[in-house]
Specification:
The structure holds 2 protein chains of 2 kinds. Chain A has a domain at 2-38 and 142-296: Glutamine Phosphoribosylpyrophosphate, subunit 1, domain 1, CATH 3.60.20.10. In chain A, 26% of the residues lie in helices and 33% in strands. Chain A contains 8 helices and 16 strands. In chain A, strands 7-2-8-1-14-13-15 form a 7-stranded antiparallel β-sheet, with helices on one face. In chain A, helix 7 (200-213) crosses helix 8 (218-228). Chain A starts with a strand and ends with a strand. Chain B has helices at 11-19, 185-198; strands at 2-5, 29-33, 50-54, 69-72, 88-91, 107-110, 123-129, 143-148, 164-167, 178-181, 208-212. The longest helix of chain B is centred in the last third of the chain and has 14 residues, at 185-198. An 11-stranded mixed β-sheet of chain B has the order 1-2-3-4-5-6-7-8-9-11-10, with helices on one face. By secondary structure, chain B is of the alpha/beta class. The chains are: A alpha+beta, B alpha/beta.
Chain lengths: 297, 225
């Protein structure tokens, strides 16, 4: 069991409250996933790329990271630390070089995401505690996805928490379990796709990224996942422009959606949505099995 | 009419209060405010009381119901009226998966759509859905009646036993051993009664009947031990 929440804002006036609304939804889903929590938040685009990184030893690892990367890349790098995570801003054409420099340096810094707008924060612990340590309620943005985890397919670690990002500004959260993730991981690695963990969901995310690298739209990639992924899944995916939802054909993993003039919201259960503004008048429905839904700005 | 507001009463207290009601009391009408998607709301009732839930509920609403009438003025999550024994449950909105699962008796009316596995393993319950139902509905259904005024999804009635299925709209596909059957006068009478009790304005003649072909392994006496 896991919990998923998602919020896509149509009304710009709500953007400063995105983090607060998502945090409340996330905490409500603690019963479905008390071991870890994470959030992907899509904020304002600047003219530089964002790289979100994580370390179990942030004081030491982040102290000189920006200076080291500036020296390695020959380009200006800023670092904004937030507990175990930090957001690096750097020129967009330096992202791969920065990833390589981070991999080569001592210490254990993990890259959570890269892109123009995405930031990912995830840790082991109760959703309330995870939200509090990153001050998620203060975050603003256009859309965001959150996940509360009850682990089945891999260990309870930061790497095993959701969301997973395997491409620029892309992320995926998952309720369910994939059965063919080992064979698919081997296949995707042979294709040169970067997969960092032994987690089944990361393979799902990597699969979608790989499809899109080969010319598929997100919609086409999600359609193809219905054939190529074996197992149970309700997926919510985020991109720079919006978010999408797809459920496997058996559809035993729950999903509820609500739409008003102000937002589109996703919850594993209706309970997650009850504090959203205007929910009593919202159109509330259950997404159909094997059907791709997508909303974009 | 007594009101219980879940904004200031715990779910456990609410269920304990409703479960403590006995037949013959004067206090028969209850209204529940602010359900806010709560799970296991109004479960295990066993008295001829009327409970109205003002809003959407979560998992297992009105499960194991006996005698009571539970009216949900909203949509319900998975497993509404699961294992109902008697009484009735009326849902104004939609129902999520496995509505009425394993129900032994009583009447479940869903005025919107029901999703997958509606009436799975039903054992005597009557279910009337005014909208559509999802895939694998009435899977292994043993007894009772499932009436669908809209369309049915894939694999309707897979591995069916003796339950009767009536569908007015299209059936996307029939499950293993489920076949269309002749609508005889006694079925029209039965359907007419169910539609009347559910408060649905529909003609029994517009429905088709489906049931078990009784060809699966378990129906062959030579496979019995």
């Amino acid at each position: 069991m896991c919990g998923i929440v998602g919020l896509f804002l149509k009304d710009k006036a709500l953007e400063p409250q995105l983090g607060a609304m998502l945090t409340e939804m996330l905490i409500t889903m603690t019963d479905r996933g008390p071991d870890s929590a994470g959030i992907a938040i899509y904020g304002a685009a600047g003219n530089r790329a964002k790289l979100t990184v994580q370390s179990d030893n942030p004081d030491q690892d982040f102290a000189t990271l920006a200076e080291e990367l500036e020296a390695a890349l020959g380009a200006p790098v800023t670092l904004r630390a937030n507990d175990t995570h930090a957001v690096l801003e750097l020129p967009a054409d330096q992202v791969e070089a920065a990833r390589a420099a981070i991999a080569d340096r001592p210490g254990r810094i993990r890259v959570m995401s890269d892109g123009d707008v995405i930031e990912i924060y995830k840790e082991v612990g109760l959703p309330r505690d995870v939200a509090s340590r990153f001050d998620l309620p203060s975050m603003s943005g256009t859309h965001g996805i959150g996940h509360t985890r009850m682990a089945t397919e891999s260990a309870v670690t930061t790497e095993g928490a959701h969301p997973f990002s395997t491409g620029p500004d892309q992320c995926l959260v998952h309720n369910g379990s994939l059965s063919n993730h080992n064979s698919l991981r081997r296949k995707l690695r042979r294709e040169g796709v970067r997969i960092e963990s032994e987690n089944d969901t990361e393979v799902g995310a990597a699969y979608l990224t790989w499809k899109m690298q080969n010319g598929a739209t997100l919609g086409e990639a999600l359609e193809a996942s219905l054939t190529d992924l074996d197992g149970f899944f309700t997926f919510v995916v985020g991109t720079k422009e919006g978010f999408g939802v797809v459920r496997d054909p058996i559809a035993c993993k729950p999903a509820v959606m609500a739409e008003t003039d102000q937002y589109v919201a996703f919850g594993s259960e209706y309970r997650a949505l009850v504090n959203l503004p205007g929910i009593d008048a919202a159109r509330v429905w259950e997404p159909e099995p094997a059907t791709v839904y997508f909303w974009s700005h | 009419m007594s009101q219980i507001d879940l904004a200031n009463t715990s779910l456990r207290e609410l269920n304990a209060t409703l479960q403590a009601q006995k037949g013959g009391d004067n206090q028969t009408a209850w209204e529940i405010l602010n359900p806010r998607g709560s799970h296991a709301l109004a479960v295990g009732l066993d008295a001829p009381i009327e409970v109205t839930v003002k809003g959407h509920t979560g998992y297992y609403c009105a499960g194991m119901n006996q005698q009571a009438t539970v009216h949900v003025e909203g949509s319900v999550g998975p497993g509404v009226a699961e294992n109902m024994m008697s009484g009735s449950v009326i849902v104004e909105g939609d129902a999520s998966q496995y509505a009425g699962a394993t129900g032994h008796g009583g009447l479940l009316v869903i005025k919107g759509n029901a999703s997958s596995r509606c009436g799975i393993s039903m054992k005597g319950i009557d279910i009337v859905v005014q909208g559509n139902i999802g895939h694998m509905s009435a899977f292994m259904a043993q007894a009772g009646n499932l009436v669908v005024c809209g369309d049915a999804g894939d694999a309707l009635g897979d591995s069916l036993y003796e339950a009767r299925l009536f569908v007015r709209g299209s059936v996307k596909s029939l499950g293993a051993d489920c076949i269309e059957k002749e609508m005889r006068p006694e079925h029209l009478d039965l359907l007419s009664d169910l539609l009347t009790r559910a408060g649905v304005d529909a003609k029994p003649e517009d429905f088709r009947r489906y049931g078990s072909a009784r060809k699966l392994y378990n129906f062959d006496i030579d496979n019995a031990y």
